[in-house]
Write a structure and sequence with these properties.
24% of the residues lie in helices and 41% in strands. The strands form three sheets. Strands 2, 3, 5, 6, 9, 10, 11, 12 and 13 form a nine-stranded antiparallel beta sheet that branches. A three-stranded antiparallel beta sheet has the order 4-7-8, with no helix packed on it. Strand 11 and strand 12 form a beta hairpin. Helix 1 packs antiparallel against helix 2. The longest helix has 27 residues.
Length: 210
Amino acid sequence: MTRSYLKICSMAVGIGAGLGVFLTSPAAYAVPVTTTVQGSVDLADASNPFGLSAGDVVTAIATYDDAGIPAVGASNLAFDSDPSFSLTITFGNFTFEASDDDDFGSGFPRFQFSDGALTGIEFERDGFAFGGFTDLTLGVFASETRWFLEDNIGSVEVLLEGTWDFANAVTEPDDVVVVVSEPGSLLLFAAGFIGLCGYSRRRRRLIQKL
């Protein structure tokens, strides 16, 4: 009687300890963020296929994990490095996705950071057709702070040029927060629970034999 009671108490303590560690131990939080950057159209030829005029606004929206971005120094964040990352740039009636980049899968497109602050967007799509044009190039220049659209075979080479407003970029935590539990506490909790289940089954067998 006393021995059985001590076994139950011991197992209960194991479960309680495991649950306590599980609930109180630090957990790793993966908190995606969403950054919104706006840019202005500085030059627009009337024939451009995106339907943009000088002074119009373009928008880049990106979702990623910023945990690896250092607070000091220069760094890059590639949108092909994680399937949960996304980048969507809207130029009037044209939308550029991360997978549209010519070098997607080779570290592009990407954000550039300096001391933790966004300073550039690096992307390129060359030789694509859109809106009656058959050979367009969309890319960046001026240290990835400006973007352009060119017609590679038409009489008007530069159709659009614009500038990103990184100073007013907005970064906010995403709605989804992934909690990564500490493994040791889970193992402790599981061991105690399995032990209690095993003891209960053994006790039922003894009662049946009696």
